Amino acid sequence: MNISTSQALFEKAQNFIPGGVNSPVRAFRAVGGSPVFIKSAKGPYVYDEDDNEYIELINSWGPMILGHGHDLIQKAVADAIQHSFSFGAPTRREVEMAELIVSMVPSIEKVRMVNSGTEATMSAIRVARGFTGRDKIIKFEGCYHGHGDSFLIAAGSGAVTFGTPDSPGVTKGVANDTLTAPYNDLEAVQRLVDANKGAIAALILEPVVGNMGCVLPAEGFLEGLRKICDQEGIVFIFDEVMTGFRLSKGGAQERFGIKPDLTTLGKIIGGGMPVGAYGGKAEIMNWVSPLGPVYQAGTLSGNPIAMAAGLTMLHYLDEHPEVYTQLEASGHKLVNGFTNSMKKLGLNYTMNSIGSMYTLFFTEQAVTDFPSAKTSDLPLFGKYFHAMLDRGIYMGPSQFESMFLSTALEDSHIARIIQANEESLKEVIG
Ligand SMILES: *Cc1c(COP(=O)(O)O)cnc(C)c1O
């Protein structure tokens, strides 16, 4: 495959941008080789600067759940642009957006818009700290909550890939306030809580993890955490930046029937534009400025163009339950196809999946937490990634990522992915 234009751009980019990219995982370091530069996308396809066509499994890390360049969202943005780009003043769409989010996400009573998932999680723990008057938070190893200082402790995804789970630049003071437990380990959480009585403001997790690859909560795990938080007065936060509006229209909390106190959102909520949000119980959200004393602001928050995209996306998902039926069916077809191929080839790798998220881990161990995810054969994944890319399938460039399906994938695309997977496995196992 000719990717010479991408290679030239990457060479040049490295002169002006640290590592040549504006977000680390894009640099392909975990899989080797040179990243492809994307020029355009439509439906299930992306096109690179050398006009290669790929079937998409990243979907901008989740937001493009309806596929690329969806007509309704493009039209909403085009219409909104007619009225200028930003006012720094309240707008009608922000009210509609908040009302819609509250109606879709079971535990949210009030919500504040921000510009990224990172801002959402940073703000949510600030509110939790203000509300409880406590400093410490608990997070889980391998869960990623954006690049806020408090979360760059045993973080997943890009941070895992780059071997800097504890980033320089994060102060000891901040690190001391972040306690970490292994995912799916209730007893470890109970021990942390017992050792820090009355000091823990919040417990935050991905209710389904996407950032150490796709990892599901064990039976009873979320319920157990809910109980511990209730007993100890800890603010229970679901980071649904990835799972929100994906695992169901009400996110993981609707799917599992568990209500957190606060929820953070991002990705799909902006329909591809930079949007995040945090919300939850009114009792807690009333602490946010200007109503309450916890300060949080944003010049471009609730940006009218971004709201036009997000609002159109959420309305569509709200009004089309068949989106989720289709995504579930696509997920099943893909998992069945991959499983059959592995049987045929005598392979027994672990495939984790739920709805439209999946990860094929190059390990035979069950993957339930970060240590088990790390038993994967990473060089083998790198070879597999490139074998897939050569066959026109564009995946997340790290073993520790979840793939995302969109409704733009038809059966013929899914069949192509399954076939590419079988050929790629054959090639790399040799
Ligand atoms: C992507 C992600 C974030 C960070 O969102 P950004 O918009 O990249 O800042 C936070 N939490 C989870 C679970 C994510 O997947």
What is the N-to-C succession of helices and strands?
A: HEEEHHEHEHHEHEHEHEEHHHEEHHEEH
Average pLDDT, rounded to a whole number, is 96
CATH superfamily of the largest domain, by name, is Type I PLP-dependent aspartate aminotransferase-like (Major domain)
Structural class: alpha/beta
Helix content bin: 25-40%
Structure, described:
The protein has helices at 4-16, 71-81, 92-104, 117-132, 157-161, 172-176, 186-195, 221-232, 251-256, 282-285, 304-319, 322-345, 370-373, 378-390, 411-429, and strands at residues 38-42, 45-48, 53-56, 110-114, 136-140, 178-181, 200-205, 235-239, 262-265, 276-280, 350-354, 357-361, 393-394, 403-404. Mean pLDDT is 96; it is low at 161-165. Helix 9 (251-256) links the parallel strand 8 (235-239) and strand 9 (262-265). Helix 3 packs parallel to helix 11, helix 12 packs parallel to helix 15 and helix 14 (378-390) crosses helix 15. A seven-stranded mixed sheet has the order 4-10-9-8-7-5-6, sandwiched between helices. It has a four-stranded mixed sheet with strand order 1-2-3-13. It is 40% helix and 14% strand. Bound molecules: pyridoxal-5'-phosphate. Pyridoxal-5'-phosphate (PLP) binds at residues 61, 116-118, 121, 144-146, 206, 210-211, 239, 241-242, 266, 276. The site of pyridoxal-5'-phosphate has 16 residues, from helix 4.
Show the helix and strand layout.
Blueprint: H1 4-16, E1 38-42, E2 45-48, E3 53-56, H2 71-81, H3 92-104, E4 110-114, H4 117-132, E5 136-140, H5 157-161, H6 172-176, E6 178-181, H7 186-195, E7 200-205, H8 221-232, E8 235-239, H9 251-256, E9 262-265, E10 276-280, H10 282-285, H11 304-319, H12 322-345, E11 350-354, E12 357-361, H13 370-373, H14 378-390, E13 393-394, E14 403-404, H15 411-429
Parallel strand pairs: 3-13, 5-6, 5-7, 7-8, 8-9
Antiparallel strand pairs: 1-2, 2-3, 4-10, 9-10, 11-12, 12-14
Helix pairs in contact: 2-11, 3-11, 7-8, 12-15, 14-15
The chain binds pyridoxal-5'-phosphate.
